[in-house]
Amino acid sequence: MTWSAGSPIVYREVWQGKVWTARPVVVVRDTSQLIALYLPYGTRWRVPAGDRMAYFDYLRTGHWTLTETTWLPGDTLLLIPPGEAHAVHAMWAPDDRRFVGWYVNLQEPARRTAVGFDFMDQELDIWVAPGLSEWTWKDEDHLARAQADGRFSAAQAEAIRAEGERVVARIQAKASPFCDGWETWRPPADWPMPGLPEGWDKVG
Ligand code: MG
After folding, report:
1. In sequence order, what are the beta bridge partners of 13?
2. Residue 103 lies in a domain
């Protein structure tokens, strides 16, 4: 089963069988080559309550509650290669919608669910400037902290970085999805702001 374009679904991070975050998104494309999901500026989504550094404790203990917040980075297109351990986020500025760059999120391969797709973040990220001339690792300290907390083994942390290195090679080669013209993508004008679908909070 695949989702048709325009379907409102939920893109969730799930940890220890519980929802960690829930982003309502609109399906742009769902094929064996690419899952593309649209997360509009201003979308109301769910995140763990508390500050970012408390997140490490929540993940270690398995205790957290969700709160509603607003997606403020700007319009975002999530480009997810099926079976691969990363997503590439194309991002536009909230004010004038100029293309600001690519955010590579290292994460578990997306799993298809009855309400959308599930995965879990793997802490390490890469920021890529428009034009692909500059890129930089982000949150290496977060990966180290997660490894110290026992969330990732040394082998897992190495695999996460290796996936990042594969994406860096694609950036340097100006390969897909970086060469596919997504910078000029725009949502159809009649797409409403997505909300969370029924069942967004049920896992498994
Ligand atoms: Mg990340």
Report:
1. 21, 119
2. yes
